[in-house]
Amino acid sequence: MLREAAGLYALGALSLCLLLSIDLLSVLARFLVEQGATWGAVGRLLLFKLPWFLHLTLPVAVVFAILLVSGRLAKDAELRAAYAGAVPPGALLVPLVAGGMLVSGIAIVNNGWLEPLGESAYQAEIQGFLYVRPPAATQTDAAFVVPGEGVYAAARVRSERDASGRAELLGVLVVLDDGTVLSAPRGTWDASDRSWSLQEVERRAPGEERTVLADVRLPFELESTPEETLARPQQQTLTELQRRVASARAAGADASAPRFELHRRIADASSATVFALVAGALGLRVRGRGGAFGWTITLLVLFWATWTFTGGLFESGVLGPAVAAWATPAAVAIVGAVLAWRVAYR
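Predicted structure:
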């Protein structure tokens, strides 16, 4: 079963990658004409996006392969012959789930490291055509809670291209623990000495008159650099995301976006295992290729709809990052466990 499923898995993965690339190909065709890109540049862009295609293709192709090979075995009465030879259905299900676990391991490497590296290279290639200099990483309405100091906020934080570890601050407001309020139109975040340096500061302390100061330097104990804090989560590896989440939590900053990205990559990779469980349990009960193909389409549509819906619920603030990321594979796992129990004890 595994040997036959491997060939179908490769076919399914290739077909799904081609399907997902249709929209990108239309964009790249326009890019080829409008920006004067070479065919080599377009080929590199497709190569950089390949890990993104594989993000969902790797687990989803498991359903395609297992259900189709099960349908073929059922049609040719090979499953019936196996059962007649005292081979229990559970004995056929275990290696399929093991194969799904192997795909999950490959998917974690792809989602966790290859995909962000490919996305970074893709954005750099695009920006090389659109900009003389790539745009600086920027975050708006950033706020941090510095233990023992107070609340630090800025309307915009923008990294400096020519100074590693530095960022420009605009529209700064700091509320210290003693109630003192500092506001400044601009400032600088320096990660080397972990500080915010503010210019033209207006200071209001409880019970005191308003004063204007030329410069104020405040300690800002954040372990991550501006590049790590302002980078798009999609362009960070699992290791970088874990470090960013820990640093943001320590500083009291909002870490929901990197947390969601971190959990979703792992959850999507684990979907290969639960897909193998569901597809195997269903495949051992189908009566032919028609039924297997029908279940394949049904499962893929339901998965895509639920995966998209939970992502939308996170963006709207209805679900937390971990719950939204794991809701879809958890639901599939529950269905798979029920089906596997029925297969094993029917």
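Summary: The chain has nine helices and six strands.
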